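quick one: zinc ion bound model?
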Amino acid sequence: MKRIIVALLLLLALPLGLAKAAEKPAADKLNVVASFSILADFVKAVGGDRVEVSMLVGPNGDAHVYTPAPADAKKVNDARLVFINGLGFEGWLDRLIRASGRESPVIVTTIGVTPRKATETGGHGHNHNHGSSDADPHAWQSVANAKIYIANIRDALVKADPDGKADYEAAAAAYLAKLDAVDREIKETVARLPPERRRVISTHAAFGYFEDAYGIDFIAPQGVSTESEASARDVGRIINQIKKQNIPAVFLENISDPRLMRQISDETGARVGGTLYSDALTDPSGPAPTYLDMMRHNLQTLSAALAS
Ligand code: ZN
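yep, here:
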């Protein structure tokens, strides 16, 4: 009797299950990992409901100095695909993949991007933990490059989950149109800034691709390490640099110590423009929970500081 009731319940449940087929239960989703928050946002934009995305370095995290946790090895082990930036960004990844005990297919999302050389500044540069590569890894800071990431993600998802081809292609096309729109916005906004004011000092040399694409110069503070506490001498150097190069604004990033920059702006009159987000998104309550939000936030912050 009991068995018959169970069978009847299963029969009843069947059409309900079919009706809900459009919304895939978590177990049916393609389980993937993205190495950091910006990439996870890209993968979600293309993967939509078919894909379950977990990330290694979360919002506000610093991928340069990341130390993987045991839980990360499990995430990699469980994943059908591992999406990474490449260009030496994830120096800790090879060891993590070895620790996961499995040859997970790694998708390098910057394939097809023309790498620029990492900026060397005053002998220290941006060399937190970029491994041996001398390419600048921050390729996503140009929207034209973001479009390459999206195409690579789409192709990898279609290959891993051919049934979702139409969904992935439609989602990618819609997102590429949004990227085109934000790219236009950045170009139009920068064009309205006085050309002599299109220069800023920033501690984190992450905006080289942005600089090349949109024509705002990001100048690193000369001879100052971002790894150690700034000395009175460092501060003096930067103040001289700002005065000599007539730089209208200095910026803070969410992963650098802001105190030094504040002190400098007090003494030079250069504007502290606010926070630019470079390597990580914010959590949902912050100003940059998605890539599109991040690019628009940075644009507004820059244009507010650089408009005359
Ligand atoms: Zn960086």
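The radius of gyration is 23 Å.
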